[in-house]
Design brief:
alpha/beta, Rossmann fold, 6 helices, 9 strands, about 30% helix
């Protein structure tokens, strides 16, 4: 059996809160987690919609039924199958969304990744062509498959925050502390913020980083 690949055009979507105006100070790109849709994920960011920021939620390129063959539809950024191609595809997609939304503007650009979206955010920030000022990893961590000795300088030019809830069922505070030590040993510095809650974006810690 011989495997072959072909590049195709695909219609992808994103959702946004707000519009660019004279009041706009920054643009947020928020990347959902596994098993979510961008439209519902974006609702978590309504508390910071004060007219000074445009909030954009791109959606993962893989949609599927959450249970069985019908019902709730959700999305994912990638799986272990053809992961390298999927990573390349979603980086191209995110760069295209950035170009359409932000263009060559000089707004402050923040990228927030939640859960599975944290790895997506990191790979985009480091391997894409978009200019990103701030990187926020919520309920997740830096992916282990990147050579941070190569990327440390670029990462340290960004304002990086990692937020972990004390009841998160996927990553504990102890694991987050250990991850911080590992990344510091690789030359990457970030602020670790702990909050009360589980695997979700909550209003209070979100507002606190704004």
């Amino acid at each position: 059996m011989e495997k072959r690949e072909i590049k195709i055009s695909k219609t992808a979507r994103y959702f946004q809160i707000g519009h660019l105006s004279e009041r706009t100070k920054e643009i947020w790109f928020v990347l959902h987690g596994y098993g979510q849709l961008a439209s519902s994920f974006l609702k978590w960011f309504e508390p910071i919609d004060d007219g000074s920021r445009l909030i954009v939620a791109p959606e993962g390129l893989h949609r599927f039924y959450w249970e069985g063959f019908s019902g709730k539809v959700v999305a994912s950024w990638m799986t272990k199958e053809e992961r390298i191609s999927d990573i390349s595809d979603y980086i191209d997609f995110l760069d295209a969304v950035y170009a359409e939304v932000a263009g060559d503007t000089d707004y402050h650009i923040r990228v927030l990744g939640f859960s599975q979206g944290t790895a997506t955010a990191c790979r985009w920030a480091l391997n894409g062509t978009s200019a990103i000022n701030s990187l926020i990893l919520w309920a997740g961590a830096f992916p282990h498959d990147l050579d941070y000795s190569t990327y440390a300088q670029r990462l340290n030019e960004m304002d990086i925050k990692v937020l972990i809830g004390d009841e998160d069922r996927f990553i504990t505070l102890d694991q987050a502390e250990e991850h911080k030590k590992e990344m510091e040993a690789k030359g990457v510095n970030f602020e670790l913020i702990k909050f009360s809650g589980g695997h979700k974006v909550y209003d209070d810690p979100l507002i606190s980083i704004v």
